[in-house]
Design goal:
By secondary structure, the protein is of the alpha+beta class. The chain has helices at residues 11-18, 27-46, 53-56, 62-66, 152-155, 167-175, 272-281, 292-295, 405-408, 412-417, 419-426; strands at 91-98, 129-137, 140-147, 178-187, 190-193, 201-203, 208-212, 231-233, 238-243, 249-253, 314-317, 327-329, 337-344, 349-356, 363-371, 385-392, 397-402, 434-439, 446-450, 482-488, 497-505, 531-536, 542-546, 563-567, 574-579, 585-591, 597-603, 619-625. β14 and β15 form a beta hairpin. The structure holds MU-OXO-diiron and calcium ion (CA) (3 copies). One calcium ion binds at residues 239, 338, 435, 532, 547, 587.
Length: 632
């Protein structure tokens, strides 16, 4: 996540400050880097030239398709640097829900001084919206939306640094994060939240959850409050999302580590295993400024050393049942989960693609043992199976490395709780911060945004794995990001083997005439950096959202505010559709049931967007065509 008002450091920078890594500077590594970089450049040249160059290594018939008419139903828009949202001519947007909007009449709702009171803060729309999905149920339109983090300085203005001064302050922050499930409807005045709908629900940092799967009940998940290791409170730092074929919502716990801290300095007295996990996952005595540990002992690792193990999971929520208990699936591994892209393989097995968003961490895949049968039981489909980490070879091939007791020397439960260490043991490829993964509904292929990595070729990851430039991560100190895609062997997402290429390398061809200028489908008309959110629409176009440097200066000149673009997988063409307010990240995308509305999330806006009330309010907007045509 990028931090504007909350914090001076990004999540990754905070972790590095607390767990510094040595510079990679010995001679052998430098030579190795140079060789692998030459190898990849050779591969790029072999792909040919032209707008579709990056795709032609994989896609036959590409050049003919590249000359076909554009599939985009709008005129691309220029960059913007203002504090507003812009969409193409013939399209309009409106706000659906803002931070602090009441979901129930009992809540006081938004207050311009600090967002609102602690009482009722679990009945308002939370802050800093991220992943989201819509669901249709018995004639009702439901939407589930993540709230990733809080702007502490805004919510707690009495404290200059946004540091909680009491348990109530902590409770307020805890309430404003997590997930909102709510009913929405489209009327004469556009989209609105159905206040007091029985479906409206806030899930936050204290909501009871079940822990299921192979690691449930393991000693590392037991606490004094839960000696069974099977029940947990809250879901933390809900970033990207996913949806299952059986109609449930998946919310993914990303930078969970920052909520934990210690009231004792003596962290070095903890068992070695905890220490290893703490270091790899960035759990330290200071926390990330939320200071929960000073007011809520559950987050004090000197008192509850296993509590951090109960976060970092993918959580399943039934949006149609407000009384249901969310479920943490240990089968999907524990790391800084971005999103969870679910695909059903030809034989019915369930495949879940997942990224671990930290510099030099890995890309994962889960394949279920059981098969999905529509209407049949789904228990175990997200837990009983095999977890894999991706290995990319420089020649455009790759393989999924199974994380098993045999391949890692770890027990299954430890593989799932300390998944990063398992990935290191099998030699998975260190990646440039895997953000969202999206599978093409019209082709057997998947895409992953690798948002940026200033440490590529500079420092090892948090586990000490070296991070030389490699095939899908071909640039040292990568500040622009790229999107890698892969096609599994035999057109089957359960296959161990795949071919890959780069769909796009962001860059600035106005500034650089080398690899930092980006791939050939980047041009003066579509400049962007740090691809992050991503989703395919029903037509097979891929929508790309950015969370990058919006200074519009130097390396980032001509890129403007963060934005949402649309790409055609067949031609490689990418065009700009929407620009966000300065300071914001555009993240989260889903569509109404009739596909005539796109819901888009605007996280951590700057200025006083959207209502000029004096505080910036993270919001979800609804974008429509003025002729009410299909938008996705
Ligand atoms: Fe929450 Fe990696 O973005
Ligand atoms: Ca973010
Ligand atoms: Ca990001
Ligand atoms: Ca993200």
């Amino acid at each position: 996540m990028s931090q504007i008002d909350t914090h001076d450091l990004s999540a990754d920078d905070w972790d590095e400050q607390n767990f510094p890594r040595p510079q990679e500077n010995d001679f052998d590594r430098v030579v190795e880097r140079a060789i692998s970089r030459r190898g990849f450049l050779g591969g790029v040249l072999a792909f040919g030239s032209g707008a579709a160059a990056m795709g032609s290594g994989l896609l036959s018939g590409t050049s003919a398709q590249a000359q076909a008419a554009s599939r985009f139903a709008f005129t691309p828009i220029p960059i913007q640097t203002d504090f507003d949202v812009h969409v193409p001519q013939g399209y309009s947007w409106q706000v659906l829900a803002r931070w602090g909007d009441p979901l129930m009449s009992a809540a006081d709702g938004y207050d311009v001084t600090d967002g609102g009171p602690v009482d009722g803060s679990d009945m308002v729309f939370g802050e800093n919206t991220d992943g989201m999905e819509t669901f249709s149920f018995q004639g009702h339109q439901l939407i589930a939306i993540n709230h990733e983090y809080t702007n502490r300085r805004i919510n707690l203005p009495a404290s200059q640094e946004g540091t909680p001064a009491n348990a109530g302050d902590v409770r307020k922050l805890q309430n404003l994060q997590g997930v909102t499930v709510m009913e929405i409807r489209e009327g004469e005045n556009g989209w609105e939240v159905v206040k007091d709908s029985p479906f409206n629900r806030r899930i936050h940092h204290n909501t009871p959850m079940k822990i299921v799967g192979p690691a449930a009940g393991h000693d590392l998940l037991k606490t004094e409050a839960d000696p069974t290791g099977t029940m947990s409170l809250g879901t933390l730092n809900n970033c990207g999302s996913g949806r299952t074929p059986w109609g449930t919502y998946l919310t993914c716990e990303e930078n969970f580590n920052g909520y934990f801290g210690s009231t004792e300095e003596a962290q070095d007295q903890k068992p070695v295993q905890l220490e290893a996990g703490y270091a790899r996952y960035g759990i330290g005595p200071q926390g990330w400024g939320y200071d929960y540990h000073k007011w809520d002992a559950r987050f004090d690792v000197s008192k509850n050393p296993h509590e951090p193990h109960r976060a970092g999971w993918v959580v399943e929520i039934d949006p149609t049942d407000p009384d249901s208990t969310p479920v943490k699936h240990t089968g999907l591994g524990r790391f800084k989960h971005e999103n969870a892209e679910v695909v059903v393989a030809p034989d019915g097995r369930v495949v879940v693609y997942m990224g671990d968003d930290e510099r030099g961490e890995f890309l994962y895949k889960f394949v279920s043992n059981g098969v999905y049968v529509p209407g049949g039981p789904t228990d175990g489909l997200l837990d009983e199976g095999t977890l894999y980490a991706a290995k990319f070879n420089d020649d455009g091939t790759g393989e999924w490395l199974a994380l098993t007791p045999e391949t890692t020397g770890m027990e299954l439960a430890e593989i799932l709780i300390f998944t990063r260490m398992a990935g290191s043991k099998v030699g998975a490829t260190t990646m440039d911060r895997p953000e969202w993964i999206a599978a093409n509904p019209h082709a057997v292929e998947a895409y992953c945004c690798l948002t940026n990595n200033k440490n590529r070729g500079v420092k090892p990851n948090a586990g000490g794995d070296e991070t030389p430039v490699n095939g899908p991560n071909p640039r040292e100190t990568n500040r622009y990001g790229q999107i890698v895609r892969w096609r599994p062997a035999d057109d089957d997402h359960t296959s161990d083997a795949f071919d890959w290429d780069l769909y796009v390398m962001a860059g600035n061809p106005e500034v650089y005439n080398n690899i930092y200028g980006g791939s050939e489908n980047v041009n003066a008309g579509n400049l962007f950096n740090s691809p992050d959110g991503m989703a395919f629409d029903s037509h097979g176009l891929v929508w790309i959202q950015t969370d990058g440097d919006d200074s519009n200066e130097e390396d980032f000149a001509g890129m403007g505010n963060n934005q949402m673009l649309v790409g055609d997988p067949a031609t490689g063409e990418i065009v700009r559709f929407l620009t966000g307010p300065k300071g914001s990240e555009v993240t989260g995308l889903c569509w109404s049931a009739d596909r005539r509305t796109a819901f888009v999330g605007i996280q951590h806006p700057g200025g006083s967007w959207p209502d000029g009330s004096g505080l910036p309010r993270s919001s979800v907007i609804a974008v429509k065509r003025d002729d009410n045509g299909l938008i996705g």
